[in-house]
Amino acid sequence: MNFEGFTVKELLRLPVLKDAKLIGGEKGLDRIVRFVDIMEVPDIKGWLREGALILTTGFSIRHDPDLLIDIVEQLDKANAAALAIKPVRFLAEIPQEAIDKSNLLHIPLIQLPLGMAYIDITYTVMEQILDQQAVLLRKSEEVYKMLTNLVLNNSGIQVMADDVAELIKCPIWVISNTGDVIVSSPADIPYVADTNTRYWDVTVDKQFVGKLVVGKEHLDEFEQVCVEQARLVFSLELMRRKIAMDTEVRLRGSFFEELLLGLPLSKQEVEDKGRQLGLLSEWIWEVARIEGEASYFEEQSAFMLELNELIRRESENRRVKVRSHIQKQGDRLVLLLATGNGGDPHKKQQVGNEATVKEWSRVLTPFLTKWSGIHTGFGSKCSLWEAHRSYIEAKKAIFIGTKLDRNKTVFAFNEVEMFQLLLDASEYVQFDALIEKKIGKLSHYDQENGTDLVSTLYYYLSTGGSLMETANQLYVHRNSVKYRMDRIKEIADADLDNPLSRFVYYLCTAFFLLRRTD
Questions:
Q1: How many CB atoms lie within 10 A of CB 297?
Q2: What is the mean pLDDT of residues 166-187?
């Protein structure tokens, strides 16, 4: 069975057309016949269809046989199948120019016997077309059942890909919406987009999730049916995977919430539950907290798509493949980031060993700093059952970091830990008198005059006395900083040449900024 369709060559082999004669367009015998129409008017431009076999007596062009040349051209433009003419009664003969044109355009020109009835031709031809379509439909159902059973039996996406590739006799790929190869057949064959491939979108829940790519440009009807059925079952398989993944993510999210809330779980409970969800206690963990506009954290936002892909790729490409987790909490994200311990679960690696643990903050910072209005804090490295501590540290890193650095957006707790100790100590040690003594006059001057001398002094000290860096932090001119420093020394009577004095002023200004509520 030729699944490309019923050709003109096969048409001429039918018993009903045994007395028909091919008089032109022999090179077009492989054209496909899909319909049968009868021509009653010379103007056929508006109703011609691809694959049409046109029957005519020539009545409509009997006064101008040269119109037959134009009809052949219209057939070619519509990619019709052939033109069958019953001459003698209305056309004495078929013009040689029309025959030449059919040869040029490869449009088969068939001369029918005078006594042949149209009904005999149309009935026989349509019977052949319908029989062929019935076979194609039956084969389509068989392909669908075969591929669907693979999904229902959980045979695996690789088995599905191999069967589809065998059916259409060419390599195939299923590409994710991020451009990664989900599966290919043959397995591991590299995907290179070129003009010799075709692709079809694959959707799940009306959302584009990837595309099915086949390794040849032209497909016959049966191969196209196979591709359509394959696209459907790949959608089913990816939907099954998505449901399983969503369920797993939801379970991991619930477990993650328990860790972040600091619920009284034993170390053994955390290890057992984490292992069931693919979060191994042998790995090194750290928690990051991302704050920003809610629109950033919508599921299909560009930010979320890029972040998910970056974390997935980095987790898979680490020395030991790990599984990290992203949790949305209102207007913020919390990341549980993992690093393997070298592949030996019995060999405990020291948490925080800088020589062996790749820094997640260095991986994510280039991405995070691209987005305006985003602030991120990284807690210190920890064991899985200590995730609550790392989460609190990430939260404190943002709070302290944004108070002390106007330009920075990504903060690590180990960078601000000293200031957290200062805040903790203030609950037991009274610093207010010292702060009032050292920078009280500057603070009162700022309140009365709307100036920013305390912040200027802090940035001046934190940048090692650099007027230019201080100006960059405050978004003012260097000369403005110099003028402010002169006023600070005058108002506070500050000795900034003495290292110990600078240190005291640095701590006082930092503590003041951390305690400030605006």
A1: 20
A2: 86
